[in-house]
Target: Transmembrane protein
Amino acid sequence: MIRPAQVTERESRGLDVHFRCPHCQARLGVNGRATRAKLMGFVLLLSGSGVMLWGPAPAWIFGLMVCLAGGVLAFSARRRELRLQWLDKPAAKRKN
Model:
């Protein structure tokens, strides 16, 4: 498990984050598309709950469907975001 305090080399390009593993020095990346989808899911959750709370009485069904869609999107995108991508594998150590 990699703790954020252990990471020394980090590079951010928008929502794409690249860093070096402190254990094996491999370059890893967090999927920026999954981060965007997760944020969009949270926005859907909030907007759906707003429609359910402050919208007209018949609109609660629509708000509930939007909340469910946002929750599923946020949950699945978070699972995808947690899987790190190999950008380059570490060079094999030479035995002398």
Observations:
- Residues 32-54 form the longest helix (23 residues).
- The first strand starts at residue 10 and ends at 13.
